[in-house]
Amino acid sequence: MKVFVRYINEAEFACDALILPMLEGEGTGYYNNIDNSLNGLIKRVIVSKEFNSKHNEVCLIHTEGKIKPDRVLLIGLGKKKDITRDKLRQAGGKAASHLRNLSIKDAALSTGTVHSLKLSPVDFIEGSLLADYDFTKYKKEEVSKGIKKITILSGENLYKQVRRIEKTASAAHFARNLVNTPSNDMTPSALVRAARSLKKVSVKVIDRRQAEKLGMGAYLSVAKGSNEPPKFIVITYKNKNIQPIALIGKSITFDSGGISLKPSEGMEKMKYDMAGGAAVLGVIKAASEMHMPVNIVGILPAAENLPGGSASKPGDVVRTIGGKTIEIVSTDAEGRLTLADAIEYAKRFKPSAIIDIATLTGACSITFGNEAIAMMGNNESMMEKMKKASEETAEKVWQMPLFDEYKDYIKSDIADLKNSGGRSGSLTSSAYFLKEFAGDTPWVHLDIAGTAWIDKDRPYIPKGATGIGVRLLLSFLKANSL
C-alpha cells in the first residue's frame, strides 16, 4: 500500500472509497456537507441505528455519482473521551481490512474529525498499513488482495511521518513473513540469507567449528540433535560513532523440546520460536532504511532443537563462552542456553546496553495471555524508557521483579547454574538465569512468548505471527538517538 497526501475537498477526490471517521453520539459531525450531497444518507443510517459510530464499527454507503468517491466507508471511533492513539490505529486497521475484503484498491481518508481530536491521521494510516498483510506464499492460487494506495486528505506536511510509518510497517511485515514461514524452509541458514538481504549492514556468520573454538558450548548444545547446522549471526549497522546497543533475538527455528519432548498438540506453532530473531532483523531493516543515527549490533544465535541420536540430554553439563558451567535440567529450556552465549559474546562489543527479545517461557503466556510482553532487567532507567516506547506503540510491556531469591531457583549441585528452576516462578527465574550473564552491563529482557503469535485476527494484526517488538524497539531506539 502506497500512502499519499493531498489537499483537496473530500467530495471532489475520485477514489473507490472515502473513509470518514465518526464520533459516537455526534451525528454526522464534520461531514454535513458530504451528507447533504448524499441526500442525507449518512444521517439516515445513524438515525435508523444501522450505524452507531461505536469503536471499529463500519458501514459502507454507495454514493451513486453524487460525489466523486464511489463509496463512503463510515468507521466508528467511539466516544470522544475514550479515543486514544491506539484506538485510532485500530480503526485504521479495521477500515483497511474491511476494504481489502471488498477488493477496494484506491482509498482516501478524511481528516477533519481526527484533527478535531488533536490526533494525527498518521496513526490511523499506521493501523491501515499494519493490517494490510496476508501470508499466501504456500497457497497454490495466491489471492492478490490489498489496497494499492491510500491518500490522506490534509494540508499538513506529513511526508516524514508517513515515510517513517511505511518503513516501520514494512519491517513488521518482514518479521511476520519470517515467523510465518514453516521450519522446513526457515532454517538457521535461511535466517542468514534474510540477514544478508538487509542493506547498509555487515553480516558475520559463526559456524559450528568457529563456535566450538570460541567455547560456545551452551549454544551448540541446543543444535546437537538436528542435521541443520547452527548459525550464530552477527549483524552490524552503524550510522553514529557511539557505543553500540546490542539487540539479541532468540532464533530457534523449530523447537520440539529436544529429549524433553513437547506435547504434540500445538507443536506446529513452534516455528515461531525464532520470533525474537525476526524482530531484531525487522528493527535493523527499518533502522538502516530510515538512516537512524544509531549503532546496533544484532545477534541471532540460530539453531534447531530436535531429539536426534546425538541430542543433549537432561543431566548434561555444558560450558559457556565466558567459562560458566550449566547443568541442563530440561532440553526444552533451550532458548536461555543460546542467549547465555549470545549475551556474553555481545559484551565483547562493549555495548551501552543489551536488550534480548525471546519467546522464552510458557509461563509468560499463562501470566499475560496474548496481551503483554514480560519485561525484566538490571537497569531501571532503561526499563522506564522501554515503558515509554510501549505507550507510544501500544506494544504493551509489564515489568516483573528479579528478586535475589530467584538465584536459589537456578542453583545446581554440580555446575555453576542449572537451566531450569522448575514450574514455580519460571517466568522470572528464567530471566534471572540471563541476568547472571549480563553482569553489570545495562540489560533488559523482553519475553514475547505470549504476544509473538495470535490465533484470532485483531484490528491491525492478522492471526499468526504478530511481528511484536519491531515497533517497540524502533520507538525505543528513536527516543534514545535524539
Report on the structure:
The protein has 16 helices and 20 strands. By secondary structure, the protein is α/β, with parallel strands linked by helices. Strands 7, 8, 9, 10, 11, 14, 15, 16 and 18 form a nine-stranded mixed beta sheet that branches. A six-stranded mixed beta sheet has the order 1-6-5-2-4-3.
Calculate the terminal CA-CA distance, rounded to whole Å: 29 Å
Question: Which class of secondary structure composition applies to the elements?
Answer: alpha/beta
Low-confidence stretches: none
Largest sheet: 9 strands, mixed
Overall pLDDT: 97
At the first level of CATH, the class of the largest domain is Alpha Beta
Q: How many β strands by DSSP? A: 20
Total domains: 2
| CATH 4th-level superfamily of the largest domain | Zn peptidases
| Helical amount | 25-40%
| Envelope shape | elongated
- The CATH topology of the largest domain comes to Aminopeptidase
Radius of gyration: 24 Å
Query: Strand fraction band?
Result: 15-25%
Per CATH, which architecture of the largest domain? 3-Layer(aba) Sandwich
